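Notebook, bench 3.
Goal today: get a predicted structure for Damage-inducible protein CinA from Halorubrum tropicale so we can plan the truncation constructs. The sequence was checked against the plasmid map this morning, with no discrepancies at the termini. Length recorded as 232 residues. Pasting the sequence as submitted so the record is complete.
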Amino acid sequence: MNAAVVTVGDELLVGDTENTNATWLCDRLDARGVAVRRVTVVPDEVSEIARVVNEYHAEYDAVIVTGGLGPTHDDVTMEAVAAAFGRDLAANEEAAAWLAERGYSGSDLAAETTHLPADCRPLPNEAGVAPGAVVESVYVLPGVPGEMKAMFERVEAEFAGTLTHVLTVDVDEPESELLDRFASLRERFDVRVGSYPGEVVTVKITAESEGEAERAAAWIREHADAVEERSA
């Protein structure tokens, strides 16, 4: 399963807010074997959000959009997602009923709070007020981290892919001197290889087979100045 994550908000683009939602979602999706192919930040603009959602919906199995839900002037994500699918925004009775069960009447909330893309699947917001929605394979979640996490956990089982096994080996050599051995790793084993320099070079080995990951890690330990191995 391939997925894209779209985070919405001017505050992300100017650096006022750290994009922790994207990091958290990528980690949870990776743990389920889902390959995240894109992480994109877009402004609070209907046209930009709609364009990106439309493009990614055509390209990937699932798209997760976070941020821009609610009744304020810059909460335009639902409008944009509706536009991406050529749908109208409409009052959603299921969302309104769920909020009523929590003690919110129509007079308590702005009318737009429960306006969602037509024919969507509403997602209740257990940690807040503004509901989310699923439109085909696009999941629209709040931007508030606590609300986003609680809502994602309601639909997390709908995301699944091929689980991978990861091993890391720390090597006390310059990264530039390891290039030929990285090439040999990829030739000899069915693995992906990443390298991350710091005080030492951390070699990350990813494979669908646990045994293949272990064999590749053993090979690089034997053929490099390995100082430590860690499970990731």
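The CA atoms of residues 159 and 215 lie 29 Å apart. The mean pLDDT is 93.
Flagging this for group meeting.
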